[in-house]
Design brief:
This protein has 171 residues and is mostly beta strands. The chain contains one helix and eight strands; from the N terminus they run H-E-E-E-E-E-E-E-E. It is globular, with a radius of gyration of 17 Å.
Length: 171
């Protein structure tokens, strides 16, 4: 069943065939269709799906502490989770590590408490310096997931940060 961001979660049986129809709503454009099995592939650093990420224990992002990861192959995605205990304005940034050719893309999801589903809040491709991705977002207390992916078929290592935006009057 799709949610508002177009994410679909389906339980499949080995050997089962699936038909996927993609349609626009009066608009033309490109789309990306990804399919992943729940699980972390050998050699992968973080979960590739929301289902895995919400229960995985080593993919936690903490405000003020950078996390390093890698996108390879180019269709890889890394989902990291974090919890905000107090509402505020935050920046989430992903940039290529030194020597990496990754053009990072970010997506931010918030868990809807009433429906227990993940809702897409924001995406960014090049909002930071150069080809780095950055999301500036006011966040309420709650559970969140951030997805790091590749833009334009690039691969490489990255550094991901989550920082609370503090004004001078707050210091």
């Amino acid at each position: 069943v799709p949610n508002s961001s177009g994410l679909v979660t389906v339980d499949l049986v080995a050997g089962e065939h699936v038909f996927v129809e993609v349609a626009g709503f009066g608009r033309l454009g490109r789309y990306l269709l990804d399919g992943y099995a729940d699980g972390i592939q050998v050699g992968d650093d973080f979960p590739n799906t929301i289902n895995m990420a919400q229960n995985y224990q080593t993919n936690v992002l903490v405000p003020g502490q950078d996390v390093s990861g890698s996108i390879s192959p180019d269709f890889d995605s890394d989902f990291l989770r974090f919890n905000i205990t107090e509402s505020g304005k935050f920046t989430i940034g992903a940039g290529a590590s030194s020597g990496s050719k990754l053009d990072a893309r970010l997506s931010l999801f918030q868990k809807d408490i009433s429906s227990q589903t993940w809702q897409l809040l924001a995406t960014d491709d090049d909002g930071g310096d150069s080809v780095n991705a950055q999301i500036f977002q006011a966040l309420d207390a709650g559970d969140y997931l951030v997805r790091v992916g590749s833009s334009r078929g690039t691969m490489g290592s990255y550094s991901l940060s989550l920082n609370q935006f503090v004004t001078q009057s707050q210091t």
